Amino acid sequence: MNKGQGLLTVRDIHIYYGNIHAIKGISLVVRKGEIVTLIGSNGAGKTTVLNAVSGVLKTRQGSIDFEGTRINRLSPHSIVRMGISQVPEGRKIFSRLTVTENLEMGAFIRNDIKEIVKDMEGVFELFPRLRERRGQIAGTLSGGEQQMLATARALMARPQLLLLDEPSMGLAPLLVETIFDTIQRISEEGTTILLVEQNALMAFVIATRGYVIQTGRIALEDKIENLSKNEMVRDLYLGGDLD
Amino acid sequence: MSYLLNPQVIIDQIINGLTIGGIYALIALGYTLVYGILFMINFAHGEIFMFGSFGGFAALTYFVNSGFSDTHPGLSIVAAFLAAMVVSAILGALLERIAYRPLRNAPRLAPLISAIGASIFLQNVMMLIIKARMQVYPDIIQEEFLEFGWFSISYFQLFIISGSVLLMVGLYLFIQKTKTGKAMRAVAEDRDAASLMGIDVNRIILITFVIGSALAAAAGVMVGIYYTQIDHMMGFIPGIKAFTAAVLGGIGNVPGAMLGGYFLGLAEAFGVLFMPAEYKDVIAFGLLVLVLIFRPSGILGEVVSERA
Ligand SMILES: Nc1ncnc2c1ncn2[C@@H]1O[C@H](COP(=O)(O)OP(=O)(O)O)[C@@H](O)[C@H]1O
Ligand SMILES: [Mg+2]
Prior knowledge:
The complex is a heterodimer. By secondary structure, chain A is of the alpha/beta class. Chain A has two domains: about 1-85 and about 160-245, 3-Layer(aba) Sandwich (Rossmann fold), CATH 3.40.50.300; about 90-160, no CATH class. Chain A has helices spanning about 45-55, 75-80, 100-105, 115-125, 130, 145-155, 175-190, 200-205, 225, 230-235; strands at about 5-15, 20-30, 35-40, 60-65, 70, 85, 160-165, 190-195, 210-215, 215-225. In chain A, helix 3 (about 100-105) packs parallel to helix 6. In chain B, strand 2 and strand 3 (about 150-155) form a beta hairpin. Chain B has one domain: ABC transporter involved in vitamin B12 uptake, BtuC, CATH 1.10.3470. In chain B, helix 6 (about 155-175) runs antiparallel to helix 9 (about 200-225). Chain B is globular, with a radius of gyration of 19 Å. Classes of the chains: A alpha/beta, B mainly alpha. The interface between A and B is medium-sized, with 25 and 17 residues. Magnesium ion (MG) binds near residues 46, 47, 89 and 165 of chain A.
């Protein structure tokens, strides 16, 4: 696949919740190796877009292609098998399962036990805190640890494309930094990333390109260096104090 | 009432309670497994149990008529259990596929009505098959008693008690240790999150029905062997009692269903010491009402309260 081509190509999708027209024609491209961020305020439609890519929500119009294959009619579990994993909003870890069992569920699509064990070591290296808590029931973890677990769990599928839905939500600034450092490491190890954030401050540090979503439409799309100079972006998503 | 203090009576009732309790527990597990994943009461579960009993009946009758059971009594019984479990598993899968899956996103009342419809339908199918006549389970093993000084236990009781425990330990290990079992727990907790792991949620739901139905079938064969007479209405009372057991233990809670089954079995066994045997069923339904009023989440029922 040549460099300019999209790993993920979303073309003019429309999504409805009953009669509510939540996504009104969104297109976006994520290329191999990129960290692309999708920013927007609460209720703009970020989660809806990610869930459409994951197949949890159905598009009424438009198309979603992954590595040249149409995926917007596939079930969520087939999409995971194609190489797309999501770290959902609010983590959604399995709180009654242990940390290790959560990671095993992340690797559900795989049968290469030896490699799974190796990857589990890998995510424990990425998040040493999880190693200490591996036998613990996941519901007893702190918010930050749960975010680490949700991220680690998604990595266990060995995705080509990782979708992250507001990984910084509800975390202390220091933890947010740790999480974003890790996202950068994950990217450097070869995983392509689509990062959804409400707070663009941290997302802009690691992303290469960004989209701004407003009430179900893409309002802006550019390289991060340009976006961070944009007046509207600075006012709305950076708290006007980047520099 | 001095006989109440007689240890022999007490031990006898404990054995009776554990026997019938194990049967309730096996059926209750089906209610609880399905509820844990779909938040729906499968009211046709009693009929799945009934069909399992007839599956075992058909197999045993065949083995008796062909003379196979004379040479291989043990193998005949094992094969009858397997046949029953296969019959019920297929029926449970069909039920899920036809009666429940199309209503997965419908209002909660819809699958309930569908379940009651399926239950009546299955009763009538069996009524036609057996021409509404009671059937008698062939006896392959002689009912003999093992004497232990001051108490005795029949082969059947020993067989049912150990068989139900074995099945439940097997189920518990399956749910705790296997990949599919863990996926069942993951789906029960969060269907969408499970699908984001690549778990085929529909497949897991189907497997859940299959497992619950197979356990009910085993209970059906046990009831056939123990009480010898079976008919197309036999699923009704044990079905409601096992449902009571599941609610007692906290519906959706697997160890709870096991505990609830034994609790109910023992309560009935000891209850008959205090009241005429005809009132035995009152105990179960009285308990159901009391639990629903005072502790609707059941004895171990964190699952329901978590979701409430
Ligand atoms: N389950 C739902 N039912 C109805 N409307 C919904 C549902 N989920 C989201 N919406 C609506 O869709 C829009 C986009 O929501 P969402 O994608 O969650 O936004 P974001 O993730 O950007 O905060 C919002 O207006 C929200 O109210
Ligand atoms: Mg969101």
